[in-house]
Write a structure and sequence with these properties.
α1 (22-31) runs parallel beside α2 (48-59), α1 runs parallel beside α7 (191-202) and α8 packs parallel to α10 (305-316). With 442 residues, the chain is of the alpha/beta class. The chain starts with a strand and ends with a strand. The protein has helices at 22-31, 48-59, 85-88, 98-105, 124-132, 165-175, 191-202, 234-246, 262-270, 305-316, 336-341, 356-359, 393-405, 416-419, 425-431, and strands at 2-7, 13-16, 39-42, 62-67, 70-75, 107-111, 136-140, 145-149, 157-159, 181-185, 206-211, 214-218, 226-229, 250-253, 274-278, 281-285, 290-291, 295-296, 318-325, 345-349, 374-379, 387-389, 409-413, 435-440. The structure holds uridine-diphosphate-2(N-acetylglucosaminyl) butyric acid. Uridine-diphosphate-2(N-acetylglucosaminyl) butyric acid is lined by residues 22-23, 26, 92-93, 116, 119-126, 163-167, 190, 304-306, 328-330, 361-363, 393-394, 421.
Length: 442
């Protein structure tokens, strides 16, 4: 297993380009199953989740050819409809092949999806929608697989009981080739979904966002191949913005996604950070003394759950008491004990919530007994070196940022979680002046 050895205290300064969005690339790769013609995707981030998705597609009869950030996917004639347990369990998005496989093969066998361990992460909303479209899906606990069949998928009107980003995409990927029109109500608004829609429309699909939270998909008999360039990763931008602020540095993002980061920019500026937008670039810095700002996570266009972990590091450097209320996932504070090892002053609490069953985005029945949905951070604190362990992707970025801001040499274990979603993270941070190296600790 590799670890990072990080010497903190150096301001990060310079320019950097965002990699392609992980949360589009994975679904764009799944979209290749909807056509027999070659699909060429550019701007694909070179991360482990993408490599795993490539393996998964190869197992389903696709040839996946990488040429740096461009990937060509073509049919190689060995069609299959089963995702192996070991592979599916390592990749949350593995279940998204359900739609294309049901639409084109009438059958799919997929394991319970894995990925980041940030709560129970069930797919009940995805399954409910697919069943409404005519699929017969059952979970076989004896082998750990979902077994799905559909003679044909039929367009329906389906209203999601609560927001789901990949659930919305899963149903879009199923509905494009269904017979008739599908209307998805209470559909998620994440802009990554609109990038996937643009890709599918470029392949001949007929999808429109008919209202802010409504998507209409007119089924078509077939899709063709083509070429598409994936949008840059706005979650990376947040990571680099906070890296600049907590190290007292200044980082320019050359392909900034600032127009999709309103909630973040609002909170960042309130906290005293500066974000200077100039055309396609945004330059981030701390702007002097930082002050505490409370955030509550929410689906887009709110303050995204992916940003709260790095936000916690920023708040350790801000004056006052800041709260973070996590409303999307039922357990996404795995970084808290690790940040405390570095000297952060953080305590858990239960904010009063009137209708928790409705307010929280997760299924209320999945809440973890004794778990608290919010933290309070007292700052500013002087962070010092520690040996810390990463347990999920954004928590990982958070601990790296904390180590970069801390005094002394820190050891970060579990960086395979970071490799899942950040391309060449250490190389890019080093280019900005960070003192960190990856070492292999057998
Ligand atoms: N949920 C259910 N049942 C469902 C679907 C969702 O209970 O059928 C719950 C989830 O467990 C969660 C909440 O509803 O508590 C919201 O889940 P959502 O489906 O919106 O999240 P996701 O699709 O699983 C995607 C991203 C996440 C990102 C969230 C929020 C991908 C591959 N993942 O997850 O990204 O945090 O949306 O925008 O697109 C990451 O990049 O590290 C990451 C975790």
């Amino acid at each position: 297993m590799d670890i990072f050895v990080i010497r903190g205290g150096t301001p990060l300064v310079g320019s950097i380009a965002l990699a392609g969005a992980k949360n589009v690339a994975l679904k764009a790769l799944v979209a290749s199953l909807l056509t027999d013609e070659p699909l060429i995707l550019s701007g694909v981030p070179l991360i482990r989740d993408v490599a795993l998705m490539g393996e998964l597609l190869a197992g389903l009869g696709r040839k996946v050819i990488f040429n740096e950030h461009t990937v060509r996917i073509e049919r190689d004639g060995k069609d299959s409809f089963q995702v192996p347990l070991e592979l599916g369990a390592r990749l949350r998005t593995s279940s998204m092949v359900l739609g294309p496989l049901l639409a084109r093969r009438g059958e799919a066998i997929i394991p319970n999806p894995g990925g980041c361990r940030i709560g129970a992460r069930p797919i009940d909303r995805h399954i409910e929608g697919l069943v409404k479209m005519g699929a017969d899906i059952s979970y076989h606990s004896e082998d750990g697989y979902f077994h799905a069949r559909a003679k044909k998928l039929t367009g329906v009107t389906y209203e999601f009981p609560k927001n789901t980003h990949t659930g919305t995409e899963t149903l879009i990927l199923a509905a494009v080739l269904a017979e008739g029109t599908t209307v998805l109500r209470n559909a998620a608004q994440e802009i990554e979904i609109d990038d996937l829609i643009a890709l599918l429309n470029s392949m001949g699909a007929q999808i429109t966002r008919s209202d802010t939270r409504e998507i209409t998909i007119k089924g078509v008999p077939s899709l063709h191949g083509g070429a598409y360039s994936i949008m840059p990763d706005r979650n990376e931008e947040v990571t680099f913005a906070i890296a600049a602020a907590v190290t007292g540095g200044r980082i320019t993002i050359t392909n900034s996604q600032h127009e999709h980061l309103e909630a973040f920019l609002d909170a960042f500026r309130k906290a005293g950070g500066t974000a200077e937008v100039e055309g396609a670039t945004t330059t981030y810095a701390s702007g002097g003394a930082l002050t505490a700002v409370d955030v509550t996570t929410a689906p887009h266009p709110g303050f995204m759950t992916d940003w709260q972990a790095p936000w916690a590091v920023l708040m350790t450097q801000a004056k006052g008491s800041a709260t973070i209320h996590e409303a999307v996932f039922e357990s996404r504070f795995s970084y808290v004990p690790e940040l405390k090892k570095m000297g952060a002053d953080i305590s858990f609490f239960d904010p009063p919530v009137e209708n928790p069953e409705v307010f929280y985005n997760y299924n209320w029945s999945d809440r973890v007994p004794g778990f608290h949905p919010a933290i309070r951070i007292a700052g500013p604190t002087h962070l010092h070196n520690a040996v810390v362990n990463i347990t999920d992707l954004r928590a990982g970025a958070t601990l790296v940022l904390a180590a970069l801001a801390a005094q002394g040499e820190s050891y970060v274990h579990g960086i395979e979680h970071l490799d899942r979603g950040y391309e060449a993270f250490e190389t890019r941070l080093s280019q900005l002046g960070a003192q960190l190296k990856r070492i292999n600790e057998e």
